[in-house]
Write a structure and sequence with these properties.
By secondary structure, this protein is α/β, with parallel strands linked by helices. The chain has 2 domains: 62 residues; 237 residues, Alpha/Beta hydrolase fold, catalytic domain (Rossmann fold). It contains 10 helices and 10 strands. Helix 3 packs across helix 4.
């Protein structure tokens, strides 16, 4: 039976090439889907795994190996929003795993546990890279709070509110916002004592691509400084990044732009976002560097530093 592939009620727990097993967040039931989102089994996890094993034997499917990339969507989105990115990475020779999770039904740490199960299921994959959009980056950082996998090599964060989203600050008590964005939406706030403020910085190399207008006020007058209409540029800037760039576009369009897709693929391959290979890292800050960091953010908000359009 053809399905919608997940969206907001299913989360992936296991991958094998294009096949994946999902868990329903409401019922706890599992199902096995192929790469075209056709359901081949449903019931318990044991039943779905048994069916997958049968399919592996019947079709003589080879074991997984080589390089893999997990692509992770943001809140209220699905892996379909990264379809062009997925296709490009496949052309570069990666085995791509489009991770689905019920972003509006669970909190960010719960989504991280779905990701943990998926990473653990990638038997045979020797190297894992990550390309994440918006809240997807926070899911990875939440995963890193509890888990490690030596195979994870690099990550590209696209429009990720690493310091919280000012729009979530403004809307968190709004009834419609609560209904649409769910419990994870409440965790997107920029409060220092909130979830985001406690998330670890990745220890492996990562790059950041932010959407921006290239002006003092950005696209959205409700967000201080430059922004992509949803996330402020300053919020994306996580100290420790190996490279950073901005692109003149809105938040929702970031992952579908050719220049963003090319930059992401380039960083996974070379560790650099730009064609000329010049990195724009964001240095890690020591406890005594808070004032310097504040000044850097103010410069960033005015469009002076690290602009690439």
């Amino acid at each position: 039976m053809k399905t919608l592939g997940g969206r907001q009620f299913w989360g992936d727990v296991q991958f094998f090439h294009g096949w994946h097993i999902q868990k329903n967040v409401l019922t706890g039931r599992f199902r096995l889907l192929d790469g075209d989102d056709i359901r081949h089994a449903s019931g318990t996890l044991k039943e779905c795994r048994a069916k997958l094993e049968q399919i592996r034997k019947d079709r003589k499917l080879p074991a997984m190996k080589g390089k893999g990339v997990i692509v992770i969507h943001g809140i209220i989105r699905s892996s379909k929003s990264l379809g062009r990115m997925t296709a490009k990475l496949k052309r570069h020779g990666y085995e791509v795993f489009p991770f689905e999770y019920p972003s509006t039904r669970i909190q960010i740490p719960e989504a991280a546990e779905y990701l943990h199960r998926v990473i653990a299921s990638l038997e045979g994959i020797e190297q894992i890279d990550l390309v994440v959009h918006s809240m997807g980056g926070l899911v990875v950082r939440s995963y890193l709070a509890k888990h490690r996998d030596r195979r994870i090599r690099r990550m590209v964060m696209i429009g990720v509110p690493n310091r919280g989203a000012r729009m979530a600050d403004r809307m968190k008590r709004n009834v419609i916002f609560k209904a649409v964005f769910g419990p994870a939406g409440q965790q997107l706030v920029s409060q220092p004592n909130g979830l985001i403020g406690k998330l670890p910085t990745p220890e492996f190399p990562f790059a950041i691509i932010a959407g921006a207008r290239g002006s003092i006020n950005g696209f959205n007058p409700l967000i201080p400084g430059d922004d992509d209409g949803t996330v402020g540029v300053a919020s994306t800037r996580l100290p420790g990044a190996a490279d950073f760039m901005t692109v003149h576009t809105l938040h929702s369009f970031l992952v579908n732009r050719d220049d963003v897709i090319e930059a992401a693929a380039r960083f996974l391959k070379t560790g650099r976002l730009r064609k000329d290979g010049e990195p724009h890292p964001i240095p890690r800050k020591s406890p005594g560097d808070h004032q310097e960091e504040d000044n850097e953010n103010k410069k960033d908000d005015t469009g002076i530093t690290n602009r690439v359009f």
